[in-house]
TrEMBL record:
InterPro entries: BRCT_dom (IPR001357), BRCT_dom_sf (IPR036420), CellCycle_DNARepair_Reg (IPR053036)
Annotated GO CC locations: Cul8-RING ubiquitin ligase complex; nucleus
Protein name per its UniProtKB record: BRCT domain-containing protein
Polar residues compositional bias, start-end: 606-616
Organism lineage string: Eukaryota, Fungi, Dikarya, Ascomycota, Pezizomycotina
Basic and acidic residues: compositionally biased ranges: 617-627
Region: Disordered, residue numbers: 213-236, 520-558, 601-635
Organism annotation: Daldinia eschscholtzii
Domain BRCT: 8-105, 106-196, 343-415, 640-726, 810-862
Domain of life: Eukaryota
Pfam family, one: PTCB-BRCT
GO BP: DNA double-strand break attachment to nuclear envelope; double-strand break repair
Length: 867
């Protein structure tokens, strides 16, 4: 028994054959150590071929800490897992092969090294965070261990947080807001502002300064047309004697590069010295270097599957002596001569980016065909900013200029078409993050490049070119086509149940044989060849004690199946969980259950259609008779009244209680609607001057006490709201109104109390202008923000002639030094428009709406009100 356990433990990698990709992070010493562990536990390691390529047709796993190696696309096409070296150590620690996804070196899997454990997070939010984290390469851990890297919590009071503090674990305790911001951007930002116990995210003001981060992904990729050949860094110069990146490669320089003969000679010498050679024949070259995405040579090279890059990419290879795909960085690939459709005529400026990031954006904007401007003017069309706080941002709001982050320009360039600025991630700005830290991480879309710049099939292809073309097509098929994981390889090998490819097994085997020279799997014998004798024990022909070859192969297949099942288990669990999801907030089913039900119905229909006509109806009738009747769901009563709540204390910090109470009210025929929708009753504990109260008062809604909702919930009966009309004599006296009179006036005004009255508001007013805008527009006012760069605006109203009585125009303002500077400018604008300027405190607007009667008293002038 002990020997059997020992055999099982040493057979951890029994079916695995590894190939290692050396790099700076994966040196020869570490490779030697890991190779010894792999061999010790039953695996085997294959060395690279003489030309440096990997024997992919013979390996099951490629160990690489980066996707920057030439055969990454080939591995993707062959569905060979590419994992970091940590996967081996994690498998050894667990005693079984670890999952593949968390150890992918693809930088687009932003949580590939995250092991998450959630603390005091509500269940719904917890499931969403865990699901999204796992989808992007992370792992979930119910308990906190030494391997846990992140704890998601709202405070330090949870037992998991206390344990991590007591044990001094290296994991980071972060707010859920960090995950939310990462999901919205599709990029992983720094956790520092979100770290508990004192997160800067909650402590600092949004306008506080943030240090501009270095742009680590832009090294050697800030320009598509570099002016000089950069010298290698000190570390590269010490560790490198000769170039090896060009070994065995033929390089062709296009005539559109326009480089001087001296520089060409230097590049030629470096290529020849590194084991490569130059050529002038496109069909013979391995790498084609050009400036623009046009011309017969570029099209021929791209169609034939050659590696196409520009001079910046070539210089990057020389500087770092490591191969990287020219599609990995936007400005390493030839630029479009006429730009990207839609960008012509656009004037774009940049804010809050510094150093290489600013240079990179300037070159990228010009490459799209737009015009980059250093300064911002009213004729600018877009502002690209790393934060939504700067003088340019304020001007963009005043001038109605589109304000986006760099992801908009990057993805527009990568997808070869202008992206819509309405996509939320392009206008998302985390409060304490400068987005310059995630710039330069967008990959070019090879599928879009092919469709636009080199469509169709080349007339003549060599066998090598045909193979490369098929490799690219198969790699594209084996990758996600959209979503946050776009372009990332799908592990089809271990997930055949969810295979979305259209190839049949035979077609795929044939294609694999044609491309890679791997023998196609033998077709399974028909069931007629495997008939079991009707009687007696199964007797095998030949020697009785002879072990057939199929035993070992079947055992091997069983082991493979078990390995695949262990890898697939988390996906199956998530799939089953999604199937069980029910309704959420009354908005319909989640995608998992809907998809599962659809598949079940399709399978049922398919079985019924395949059944014979003679027995089909009988089977259908039998199934119908045997199928238990579904329990009828109780129907909800019609909505008899819609209510808006303000100042309701029963649900403060009680999310689950709120959800349950809302359902109870709906069962009584009461629908709680959001502010801004049509409502019948406004529910408030007392007279208040909140935005909700004043907006719905302006609509003439009946105002009732919160006691009505409380008693409806407690008694589970629909009580008459007329018995709970709000009575608040104390606050009526305080505000100088009679609520019943104000409601009646509002119904008479029909939302036109301030119809046509121009009201301006300073951008820096206390509590912001948004609330005042909602109140003013609910009463028909013309509301506009007013800032330092607003300039002279069109006169909102005008008298019938120049001798008429001036109409009043209002400016809501405080007495801060910044706002005082605007007063003179506002008054001049009003006088030029033959209008009477009134600079008032915001209380004037609140009191007018509360009374539902337009009046003015000089006590509201800011000079008097704040005296």
């Amino acid at each position: 028994m002990a020997e059997q356990e020992q055999d099982e433990s040493t057979g951890l990698f029994n079916l695995c054959t590894f190939a290692f990709v050396p790099s700076k992070e994966l040196g020869e010493g570490l490779i030697s150590e890991l190779s010894g562990s792999v061999v010790k536990f039953g695996g085997s390691v294959l060395a690279a071929k003489r030309d440096g390529s990997l024997p992919l047709s013979q390996v099951t796993h490629v160990i690489a800490n980066s996707i920057d190696f030439p055969q990454y696309t080939d591995a993707t096409a062959m569905m060979i897992p590419v994992v970091k070296s940590k996967w081996i150590t994690a498998s050894l620690a667990k005693g079984r092969q670890a999952q593949i996804r968390p150890f992918t070196p693809d930088p687009r899997m932003i949580f590939s090294d995250v092991v998450l454990s959630c603390a005091d997070i509500p269940p719904t939010d917890k499931e969403a965070i865990i699901g999204a984290t796992m989808a992007m390469g992370g792992m979930d851990s119910e308990n906190v261990t030494k391997l846990t890297t992140h704890i998601c919590a709202l405070s330090m009071d949870h037992a998991k947080c206390k344990l991590a503090t007591e044990k001094r674990l290296k994991c980071k305790i972060v707010l859920p807001h960090w995950f939310d911001d990462c999901f919205k951007l599709g990029k992983r930002i720094d956790e520092s502002p979100y770290l508990l116990p004192d997160p800067e995210y909650l402590r600092a003001n949004p306008e506080d300064a943030i240090q501009v981060p270095p742009s680590q992904h832009l090294e050697g990729a800030t320009s598509a047309r570099p002016d000089y050949l950069p010298s290698p860094s000190d570390d590269d110069a010490k560790t490198r004697r000769t170039l090896t990146v060009f070994n065995g490669k033929k390089v062709m320089l296009s005539s559109d590069l326009s480089i001087r003969s001296r520089l060409r000679d230097i590049v030629l010498g470096l290529i020849n010295g590194g084991g490569g050679e130059m050529t002038d024949n496109v069909s013979e070259c391995d790498w084609f270097i050009c400036q623009y995405r046009d011309g017969p040579q570029y099209i021929q090279a791209a169609q034939a599957g050659k590696t196409v890059g520009n001079l910046s990419w070539l210089y990057h290879l020389i500087t770092h002596n490591e191969w990287t795909s020219p599609l990995r960085r936007l400005l390493h690939y030839p630029i479009p001569r006429d730009g990207i459709p839609g960008f012509q005529g656009k004037k774009i400026t940049v804010s809050n980016y510094g150093g290489e990031a600013r240079i990179y954006l300037e070159n990228l904007i010009n490459a799209t065909g737009a015009h980059y401007t250093k300064t911002m003017k009213a004729d600018n069309t877009h502002l690209i900013t790393a934060r939504d706080n700067s003088e340019k941002c304020e001007a963009a709001r005043d001038w109605n200029i589109h304000m986006v982050n760099h992801l908009w320009i990057e993805e527009s360039y990568a997808k070869c078409e202008m992206q819509s600025i309405t996509i939320p991630k392009y206008t998302h700005f985390p409060a304490r993050t400068n987005l310059g830290e995630v710039i330069g991480q967008t990959f070019l879309d090879e599928k879009k490049l092919r469709a636009l710049y080199y469509p169709g099939e080349p007339e003549k292809l060599t066998p090598t070119s045909k193979r490369k073309r098929k490799v690219l097509e198969m790699a594209d098929e084996n990758s996600f086509s959209d979503g946050p994981a776009e372009g990332i390889a799908i592990g089809r090998q271990a997930h055949k149940e969810f295979d979305v490819m259209k190839d049949t097994e035979a077609e795929y085997a044939q294609k694999t044989t044609e491309v890679f020279g791997v023998p196609a799997p033998r077709k399974r014998r028909e069931s007629s060849e495997l008939k079991t004798p009707a009687k007696g024990r199964h007797v095998r022909a030949g020697k009785e004690n002879e072990t057939p070859s199929t035993v070992s192969s079947s055992r091997s297949a069983k082991d493979k199946a078990l390995n695949r099942l262990s890898v697939l288990a988390p996906d199956i669990a998530l799939y089953e969980k999604e199937k069980k999801r029910g309704l959420k907030d009354g908005y319909g089913l989640w995608g998992g259950k809907r998809a599962a039900d659809f598949i079940d119905r399709e399978n049922l229909n398919r079985r019924q259609s395949l059944s014979s006509p003679s027995t089909g109806s009988e089977e259908k009738q039998t199934k119908t008779e045997k199928r238990p009747a579904k329990k009828a769901r109780p129907s909800l009563p019609d909505i008899s009244m819609r209510v808006v709540l303000t100042g309701f204390q029963r649900w403060v910090n009680e999310k689950y209680k709120e959800d349950a109470d809302r359902k109870k009210l709906r069962e009584l025929g009461i629908a709680v609607v959001t502010d801004g929708q049509q409502c019948d009753y406004l529910v408030a504990p007392h007279l208040v001057r909140t935005v909700k109260f004043l907006r719905n008062l302006s609509k003439g809604a009946t105002i009732v006490s919160s006691d009505w909702i409380e008693q409806c919930l407690d008694t589970k009966e629909l009580l008459d709201p007329q018995d709970f009309i709000l009575q608040d004599k104390e606050n009526e006296k305080k505000f100088g109104i009679k609520l019943e009179t104000s409601v009646q006036r509002a119904r008479d005004n029909k939302g036109k109390l301030l119809w046509g009255v121009p009201i301006y508001c300073t951008t820096n007013i206390k509590n912001g202008p948004q609330g005042y805008q909602a109140i003013a527009e609910a009463n028909g006012a013309m509301f506009m923000t007013y800032g330092p760069r607003s300039g002279t605006t069109i006169r909102p109203t005008a008298p019938e002639d120049d001798d008429g009585e001036p109409e009043p125009v209002y400016l809501l303002s405080n007495t801060s030094a910044e706002e005082k500077k605007l007063w003179k400018k506002f008054e001049d604008m009003a006088h030029k428009g033959n209008m009477e300027p009134r600079i008032v405190a915001a209380d004037w607007l609140l009191d007018v709406v509360m009374h539902q009667e337009v009046s003015f008293d000089e006590k509201y002038l800011v000079t008097n009100f704040f005296a």
